[in-house]
Amino acid sequence: MSRQVTPAPLSRRPTVSVVIPNYNYGAYLPDAVGSVLGQEGVQVEVIIVDDCSTDGSLDVARRLASADDRVMLVEHERNMRHIATYNDGLRRTTGKYVVLMSADDALAPGCLGRAVTLMEFDPSIGLVYGHPRDFSESTPPATDECESWPGATLTWTKWSGQEWVGHMCRRGRNMIRSPEVVMRSELLADLGGGWDPRFPHSADMYLWMRAAAHADVGRVNGRIQAYYRVHDSNMHSVSYSGLLDDFVARSNTYRAFFEIDGVHLKGANRLERLARRRLAREALRQTMYLPNDEDHDENVERLSTFAASVAPADWLIRTFYRVVVRTPLAAAWFRIEAHRTFLRDQRELRVGT
User: Fold this and answer.
1) For 233-251, what is the HEC assignment?
2) Which of 14, 83, 252, 262 could form a disulfide with 257 if both were Cys (CB 3.0 to 4.6 A apart)?
3) What domains appear along the chain, each with residue ranges and CATH number?
4) Cβ contact 276:309 at 8 Å
5) CA dist., res. 322 & res. 66, Å (int)
6) Looking at per-residue confidence, does 20 or 234 come out higher?
7) Contact 139, 29 (CB under 8 A)
8) Is the pLDDT of residue 114 over 90?
């Protein structure tokens, strides 16, 4: 079971390495880097990895690196795409802890100190995450907006890795955005040192689950830990093709995890079945959100086919969704699904699972 932890205050200032991969996000780089350099309670090193940007990012990055010796700049001579760029930066880190953050995101004030406080207190914890707040303004919200919800109290939670993997399986999706994650560098090295290029759309989910198979997981509650910028350049596709790709990527991620790292967990077969059933249910739920256009029925059928491929025994629930989505009951069921999503999001905001 998860338990609340009250860590002792930091007695030293460990180094956190923050890797910031960049491709044509020069306009956002100063906010991203500034949010790291302003962290209190820890030492920081910033590694900007520019992947052959064409928007003048290099000039911005060079100015940032020349202004502060805590900032290192890596300039790619050719475009290596995102996973290779991430891993290039991660290989260069020297800190005890590591963060990977997109150049268009930002860390919340004090977030690294809060995460590292828990990890220094409990060496069994290999990964700490928290609540990332979405924003779409030109700059992150004011620094005094630190509470995850009005009146929130700062607390820390610890799960055994096995229990946290169970939560990931029950959700059928990734519960972490990424910029709020702090990992123990030693654990990352033990897992190969970076993101797996086999999973261009779900390497983060794969890494978090692998980490939980080898270490415990912690969370900072009640405080914003990062800011996730929402804009046209980074939003996941809302088209049918992008949606189906995401489900296929998740399915492949669960399969790969339980073939290697997850196979040694207690009840691994049960957990994998659970993940597949919940993934199928998530795909069926998404049929309620599809636009009512000329492709609607075909897309419903394809999502249903995907659900059948990962959880073939759950024919009754597939039949239910196939019937409901084509009847006047669809509007009422949509409201039920929307309310369930709201309740799920509120739980994840407060407790992280």
Assistant:
1) CCCCCCCHHHHHHHHHHHH
2) 262
3) 3-229 (3.90.550.10), 240-351 (no CATH)
4) no
5) 59
6) 20
7) no
8) yes
- Least confident span in 64-73, 177-186, 286-295: 286-295
Rounded CA gap, 86 and 48, in Å? 10
Euclidean distance between CA atoms 140 and 34, whole angstroms: 11
Which H/E stretch holds residue 30? helix 29-37
Nearest to 278 by CA among 312, 313, 311, 325: 311
pLDDT in tens, 24-40: 999 999 999 999 999 99
Q: Which amino acid is at 338?
A: A
CA angle, residues 251, 254, 255, in degrees to nearest 5: 85
Q: How far apart are CA 214 and CA 285, in angstroms?
A: 32
Q: Could you tell me the CA-to-CA distances from 62 to 39, 78, 146 in Å, in that order?
A: 21, 18, 31
